[in-house]
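Exercise 7.
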Amino acid sequence: MRKYQVLIPWFVPAAALLVVLLSACASGLKLTEHPSGGISRQTTVLFVVDGLAAKLLQEGFREGSLPNLKEHFLGNAPGFALARASFPTLTYPNLASILTTERVGEQPVIANHMVIERGEILDFESHADHGELRRQIDPRSVIAKLQAEGRRTASFSYVLGMNADDHMRAGLGEGLEYTSHDYRSLDGRLLSNMQTYLTDAVIAPEWPEFIYVHLVG
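Solution. The predicted structure, written as tokens, is:
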């Protein structure tokens, strides 16, 4: 039986939400052919939910209002470990630290809005600057390190992780849904793609060793 490990950072604030790229490309998953290296002994899933506070999660588990989350993420464990975020708890510095395993200040993203050389202002909450965000983070991420070792990765996010072997593609529909704040539809499509991917006849026998999931929440 395949073993899997789930890591759940719950501290990403709701105020700094995921921004979907507006582009004309087809939405859905982009799959990359990858030579078989045998079935991975363990698949690690990094599952990030914007704005889901640890206290709210603990109360939901205790009151029984989150049965699916408790069954699939907590199981019989008495509780879960808490991660310590940088302060203020901005989305992109913390996501960058999670994906690079480097502290804020060691990796280059220290705020959602940054002033760089020549006084240029980067706004990582804007889709226009997501390309620069990926240029700074993706090459030094866990995904890049695993790929250098020939290990397969997958990303279910509309911002980071586009360098994974298999990853989401944001189309015009996703952009319109973000503009209209239809986050439930965005997350629903992302989760639906992930379910299809993990149960696919070709993918299922050999899951990637690392799967990154980022929900708007």
